[in-house]
Amino acid sequence: MSAATAGLLAGMALGFAAFFGGFWAFLLVMFLGLAGLLAGRMLQGDLKMSDFVGPRDRR
Fold it and tell me: What is the mean pLDDT of residues 11-26?
Protein backbone atom coordinates (compact mmCIF):
# COMPACT_ATOMS: atom_id res chain seq x y z
CA MET A 1 0.00 0.00 0.00
CA SER A 2 1.42 3.36 -0.96
CA ALA A 3 1.80 6.25 1.47
CA ALA A 4 -0.87 8.20 -0.43
CA THR A 5 -3.38 5.38 -0.02
CA ALA A 6 -2.59 5.02 3.67
CA GLY A 7 -2.99 8.77 4.13
CA LEU A 8 -6.30 8.71 2.29
CA LEU A 9 -7.64 5.91 4.50
CA ALA A 10 -6.45 7.63 7.67
CA GLY A 11 -8.08 10.89 6.59
CA MET A 12 -11.34 9.15 5.80
CA ALA A 13 -11.34 7.39 9.19
CA LEU A 14 -10.74 10.69 10.99
CA GLY A 15 -13.43 12.37 8.91
CA PHE A 16 -16.00 9.70 9.76
CA ALA A 17 -15.07 9.88 13.44
CA ALA A 18 -15.44 13.66 13.47
CA PHE A 19 -18.74 13.60 11.57
CA PHE A 20 -20.45 10.82 13.50
CA GLY A 21 -18.79 11.08 16.91
CA GLY A 22 -17.74 14.69 17.29
CA PHE A 23 -14.48 16.24 18.36
CA TRP A 24 -13.60 13.78 21.15
CA ALA A 25 -14.13 10.78 18.88
CA PHE A 26 -11.86 12.48 16.33
CA LEU A 27 -9.14 12.88 18.96
CA LEU A 28 -9.55 9.29 20.14
CA VAL A 29 -9.25 7.89 16.62
CA MET A 30 -6.23 10.11 15.93
CA PHE A 31 -4.50 9.04 19.16
CA LEU A 32 -5.16 5.33 18.60
CA GLY A 33 -4.01 5.61 14.99
CA LEU A 34 -0.75 7.22 16.10
CA ALA A 35 -0.24 4.54 18.75
CA GLY A 36 -0.84 1.83 16.14
CA LEU A 37 1.57 3.49 13.72
CA LEU A 38 4.32 3.66 16.34
CA ALA A 39 3.74 0.06 17.42
CA GLY A 40 3.86 -1.13 13.82
CA ARG A 41 7.07 0.78 13.13
CA MET A 42 8.65 -0.71 16.26
CA LEU A 43 7.64 -4.23 15.24
CA GLN A 44 9.11 -3.66 11.77
CA GLY A 45 12.34 -2.46 13.32
CA ASP A 46 12.17 1.07 11.90
CA LEU A 47 11.95 2.64 15.37
CA LYS A 48 13.56 1.83 18.69
CA MET A 49 12.41 2.92 22.11
CA SER A 50 15.76 4.66 22.55
CA ASP A 51 14.74 7.07 19.76
CA PHE A 52 12.18 8.60 22.13
CA VAL A 53 14.23 8.60 25.32
CA GLY A 54 17.17 10.94 25.75
CA PRO A 55 20.53 9.94 27.21
CA ARG A 56 20.51 9.37 30.94
CA ASP A 57 23.69 11.08 32.07
CA ARG A 58 23.70 11.37 35.83
CA ARG A 59 26.26 13.65 37.34
Answer: 90
